[in-house]
Design brief:
Gyrase A, domain 2; 4-stranded antiparallel beta sheet; 23% strand; binds flavin mononucleotide
Length: 257
């Protein structure tokens, strides 16, 4: 048995670690994903000795303390655990195609939306907007229209039961609208995953918002101007396991040194 921490800073990137007496450490500002990994999934658990305490401090901050012991065979797991949390979330996030009907917490939706608003945008124009649909009737109507545009059977829900639909639209007069809107979508899907929610990009927002009916809806919602639909970020609690990623296609990277 040996402690395989190379340095304390290595153990959890971005978090402050306070060593206590006798091999007991206290972690402050640990990302929830890390905690999930450590405390939430038994198969990933290192051989901890003693009790772990998890304290929620506001929305995203978590502190945990406890005693642990490592064996050298845990080196690989430890390296996985110490992976940068953002990169881990990027690799772990998957498109979810089965949701529970429960509405995510408003605070979580707000954080996802905020992450979207912070996406990079060409010339810093912030050309994309987000319409957050949590009204069941409207969500179902958009699902029916989306299904019709997609050409599926009438009973198919293209949002896979997700209760919240975050629609990204971007300024139709701006050449970079699709790039800008796509980054907003990407940020939101990642943020949803990091908060333990499932999400998926659902297409056909462009076709929807090309119709007079949807333009009228925008104006009813107080949104003026010309907007192109970029995508729907369907969000909710995942019903089932996180899907495995498809293997990455080889030959997609070219280093020129
Ligand atoms: C631009 C774009 C449009 C997409 N549209 C749909 C869609 O309409 N319906 C759907 O089920 N998935 C849609 N997806 C999800 C992709 O199918 C999914 O990202 C892909 O299969 C890879 O899976 P992953 O997201 O789990 O890595 C879309 C993804 C992107 C990026």
């Amino acid at each position: 048995m040996g402690l395989v921490l190379r340095s304390r800073a290595d153990f959890c990137h971005g978090s402050k670690i306070k060593p206590l007496e006798g091999g007991v450490f206290k972690f402050v500002d640990v990302d929830p994903l890390f905690v999930q990994k450590v405390a939430g999934r038994p198969e990933d658990r290192l051989p901890f000795v003693g009790k772990f305490h998890i304290f929620l401090m506001g929305q995203r901050r978590v502190a945990l303390s406890g005693r642990f012991d490592f064996d050298h065979s845990d080196q690989e797991k430890l390296e996985d655990m110490t992976m940068n949390e953002i990169i881990r979330a990027m690799e772990e996030r998957r498109s979810i195609r089965k949701f529970k009907p429960d509405m995510p917490k408003k605070a979580d939706l707000d954080q996802i939306i905020e992450a979207g608003l912070y996406a990079a945008s060409a010339k810093g124009k912030q050309s994309a907007i987000i319409v957050a649909v949590t009204n069941r009737e409207l969500r179902d109507k958009i699902s029916v229209d989306n299904c019709r545009i997609g050409g599926w059977d009438k009973d198919f829900d293209p949002f896979y039961g997700a209760p919240a639909i975050l629609i990204v639209l971007a300024d139709k007069t701006w050449a970079n609208r699709v790039y800008d809107g796509s980054l907003v979508m990407g940020n939101m899907m990642l943020a949803a995953h990091s908060l333990g929610l499932g999400s998926i990009w659902i297409n056909r927002a462009r076709e929807e918002f090309e119709t007079e009916e949807y333009k009228k809806l925008l104006s009813n919602w107080g949104i003026k101007g010309e907007w192109e639909g970029i995508g729907h970020c369907a969000v909710g609690y995942r019903d089932g396991e996180l899907p495995q990623p498809a293997p990455r296609k080889p030959g997609r990277v070219f280093y020129v040194e």
